[in-house]
Amino acid sequence: MSTKFPEVQGGGSLILAWQIRDKHVLVVGGGEVAAGRILNVLNADAKVTVVCPAAGLNEEVAYRVSQKQVIHVDRTFEPQDLEGVDMVLCAIDDPAASTRVWQLCKEKKIPANIADVPPECDFYFGSMYRDGPLQVMVSTNGNGPKLASIVRKKIAETLPDNMGTAIENTGKLRRKLRHVAPNIEEGPKRMKWMSGICESWSLEELVKMDEQDMDNVLTYYASGKVPTYAEVQVKRDVQS
Ligand SMILES: C[C@@]1(CC(=O)O)C2=NC(=C\c3[nH]c(c(CCC(=O)O)c3CC(=O)O)Cc3[nH]c(c(CC(=O)O)c3CCC(=O)O)/C=C3\N/C(=C\2)[C@@H](CCC(=O)O)[C@]3(C)CC(=O)O)/[C@H]1CCC(=O)O
Ligand SMILES: NC(=O)c1ccc[n+]([C@@H]2O[C@H](COP(=O)([O-])OP(=O)(O)OC[C@H]3O[C@@H](n4cnc5c(N)ncnc54)[C@H](O)[C@@H]3O)[C@@H](O)[C@H]2O)c1
C-alpha cells in the first residue's frame, strides 16, 4: 500500500557525524588497519591511546607515536586499558583476544569496532572522502567494502575541487550572521535568508567571497533581501 509518507527500508545503518573531540579512544593493535583507524579518529580531534607491543607497530603508527600524536602503551591489551575510555577500535591478528576485547567492552557499555568482525561491531567504518569541512561516507552495510571504496571514488569525481572552500566560507558567513542577528526569535528569518544565499549564489561566487563581501552581504539581512553576488560587488567598488 502506498502512502504519502516515506517507506521504511529496514536493514540499514544509522549514519551520523559522531562528535569525539577530546574523547578517549583506545586503539588495540598497531598494524595497517590500526593506522587507518588512528587517522580517522585523530581527524575528529579525539585523544588516542594505542596499546600494542613496540615490535608490532607499523611505520605510520610508529611515526604518530614519535610525533606524540598518540599515547603508546608498549604491551598487549589488558582489561585495565578500558578505564576511562569512550570508544574502542580493535585491529589485531588474534581472533580470541579480539573477542575478549569485545566482551569486556559490552560489559562496560563502551562502543566498539572489532575490524573485520561484523557481529562484534557497534558501528562499521565506511569509505571516506574529505575536503576541509566536507566529509562523505559510503557504506555498503557489510556487503562489499571494496565496492564502498569504488563508489566513494565515483562520488568524489563528480565534486568540484573547491567544494570545501565554498563550505568553509559559508560557515564563516553563518557565524557572522549569528553575531548580526543573535536572537532566538530571528531563527526563521535567519534560516530563510541563509538558505536563499546558498541557493542563489554559484559555487564559484561562494569560493570568491572574502571578509569584505561577507560584511557587505550582511548589510542586506535586516531587510530580508537576498542580494546577488554582483550587487555585493557594487558596494565593494564604492568602498575602494
Ligand atoms: C570501507 C572500509 C573502511 C575502513 O575499514 O576504513 C571497510 N573495509 C575496507 C576495506 C576492505 N575490507 C576488506 C577488504 C578485502 C576485500 C573484501 O573482502 O571485500 C577490503 C578492501 C581493501 O582492503 O581495499 C575485508 C573485510 N572487511 C570486513 C570483513 C568481514 C566480513 O565481511 O565478514 C572482511 C573480510 C572478508 C573475508 O575474510 O573474506 C568488514 C568490514 N569492513 C568495513 C569497512 C565494514 C563494512 C563497510 C561496508 O560494507 O561498506 C566492516 C563490516 C566492519 C569494519 O571493519 O568496520 C575499507 C575501505 C576503505 C577505502 O579504501 O576507502
Ligand atoms: N576492516 C578492514 O578494512 C580490514 C582490512 C584488512 C584486514 N582487517 C583485519 O584487521 C585485523 C588487523 O589487520 P592488520 O593488517 O592491521 O594486521 P597486522 O598483522 O598488520 O597488525 C596486527 C597488530 O596487532 C598487534 N597485536 C596482536 N595481538 C595484540 C594484543 N593482544 N594486544 C595488542 N596488540 C596486539 C600486533 O602486534 C600487530 O601490531 C586483522 O584481523 C584483519 O583480518 C580488516
UniProtKB/TrEMBL annotation:
<dbReference type="InterPro" id="IPR028161">
    <property type="entry name" value="Met8-like"/>
</dbReference>
<keyword id="KW-0627">Porphyrin biosynthesis</keyword>
<dbReference type="Pfam" id="PF14824">
    <property type="entry name" value="Sirohm_synth_M"/>
</dbReference>
<dbReference type="GO" id="GO:0004325">
    <property type="term" value="F:ferrochelatase activity"/>
</dbReference>
<dbReference type="Pfam" id="PF13241">
    <property type="entry name" value="NAD_binding_7"/>
</dbReference>
<dbReference type="InterPro" id="IPR006367">
    <property type="entry name" value="Sirohaem_synthase_N"/>
</dbReference>
<keyword id="KW-0560">Oxidoreductase</keyword>
<feature type="domain" description="Siroheme biosynthesis protein Met8 C-terminal">
    <location>
        <begin position="160"/>
        <end position="227"/>
    </location>
</feature>
<dbReference type="Pfam" id="PF14823">
    <property type="entry name" value="Sirohm_synth_C"/>
</dbReference>
<feature type="domain" description="Siroheme synthase central">
    <location>
        <begin position="131"/>
        <end position="157"/>
    </location>
</feature>
<dbReference type="GO" id="GO:0043115">
    <property type="term" value="F:precorrin-2 dehydrogenase activity"/>
</dbReference>
<dbReference type="GO" id="GO:0019354">
    <property type="term" value="P:siroheme biosynthetic process"/>
</dbReference>
<dbReference type="InterPro" id="IPR036291">
    <property type="entry name" value="NAD(P)-bd_dom_sf"/>
</dbReference>
<dbReference type="InterPro" id="IPR028281">
    <property type="entry name" value="Sirohaem_synthase_central"/>
</dbReference>
<protein>
    <recommendedName>
        <fullName>precorrin-2 dehydrogenase</fullName>
        <ecNumber>1.3.1.76</ecNumber>
    </recommendedName>
</protein>
<keyword id="KW-0520">NAD</keyword>
<dbReference type="InterPro" id="IPR028162">
    <property type="entry name" value="Met8_C"/>
</dbReference>
<comment type="pathway">
    <text>Porphyrin-containing compound metabolism; siroheme biosynthesis; sirohydrochlorin from precorrin-2: step 1/1.</text>
</comment>
